[in-house]
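User: My advisor, Dr. K., asked me to get a structural model of this assembly before our group meeting. I'm new to this, so sorry if the format is off. These are the inputs:
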Amino acid sequence: MIRTSPRALALALALASGLVVAAPLACGPTADPCAGPTRCVADGELPLPRLSDYDFFEGPMKDLKPKDGVVPYTVASPLWSDQAGKGRFIVLPEGGAITFAEREGWSFPDGSIIVKTFFFDHDRRDPAAGARIVETRLLIREAGAWVPITYVWNDEETEAELLKVGKRINIEFIDEVGEAKSEEYIVPNTDQCGNCHELSDAIQVLGPITGQLNTDVEVDGATVNQLTWLADQGLFDGPLPDLGGLDRFAHPMDPAGDLDDRARSYLHANCSHCHRDGGGASKSGLVFLRWEEDPAKFGVCKVPAAAGPGAGGRPHDIVPGAPDESIVLYRMNSLDPDIKMPELPNRVIDSAGVQLISDWIAAMPATECGP
Ligand code: HEC
Ligand code: HEC
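Assistant: The format is fine. Below is the predicted structure of the whole assembly, which you can bring to the meeting.
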């Protein structure tokens, strides 16, 4: 079960293949600055009332077929969001470009918009059966800061309106074993975006970092490195360094991948936005950045900062060789608000993620952690 959303990938890249052909670089005084790779800013004061006002898509909006300058991308290790699939795009303002950084902290020009759409497959056994699109989130770069915004799609999937207060949506679907199910999905209030996106008091982008985008994608039937492809689209303001020595995250659910790499990539995507210096859980001292090298920092034999109900009577975050004794797993496996990790808003346990972290801890050479 590869949850890297093959659908999102297929979607983004089927679209991408169109873009490759249709996005000539603007050059010369007569070139249309909106013919890609950047895009003319929509008229009006941001945030615009409706998603269609941004003019990102052509044809029926629910096909999410991007216009020139609306550039699809994917992340190697996605955030678990109660089984939602996602489609992601980067939109740069006319003439703008990203300044690359080796690890994170890429710098985006004012007027950049990153677009992330959430959808739920009607039939989890068969992504080809279609999906219900629920919300589209934007991060807009204005005056040197990111502004978070959400649009909620109508039932007909023809339009999405600016969300003012959080909303709960009932999602009906056929589950993996063919049973009709429903689940309540929470669209977060924009005040809550900061719970994950805020680092040292400023909203940050989380996906567009080197390790997450340095992954192979398929464009026009050929396998290409996504960073190279994005650079070829003209997204960066200069040539990229040699990618060989840079971070490259694993696809967590790729059974052929290295277990340690997959687990660490999973924890980065799902936990590190809080569990790092400057993040919402910095006081815990637990750091889940993929590049953290000290096992004690990412939980191995670490005694928790506070032994509340969250510890479930277990003394250590990770006990090598013993998933059942590890607080990390106990908390990932719970929906109790006092215990569960990640904290809100998920309401469905990521059982594949729990299995991955369990396998990872089980495979560590057994060690006594001591008091
Ligand atoms: C539970 C944590 C969490 C919350 C809450 C959250 N996000 Fe995110 N968001 C992430 C993570 C992690 C990523 C990157 C991984 C991915 O794309 O799957 C991301 C990616 C995004 C992206 C794509 C650009 C980027 O930063 O990677 C946008 C746009 C976005 N979020 C907008 C929002 C908005 C708007 C809200 C509030 C309505 C919000 N997010 C709430 C965790 C969260
Ligand atoms: C939205 C922010 C947020 C996210 C995302 C998050 N955590 Fe936490 N986590 C916290 C906070 C805040 C604490 C400290 C308070 C507590 O223990 O409940 C904490 C504490 C913990 C602790 C106790 C650690 C210690 O040493 O004190 C563990 C274990 C933990 N988290 C695991 C995880 C795992 C595993 C993930 C990802 C699957 C995750 N968390 C994602 C906010 C978060």
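One thing worth pointing out at the meeting: The CA atoms of residues 286 and 297 lie 5 Å apart.

User: Perfect, thanks a lot.
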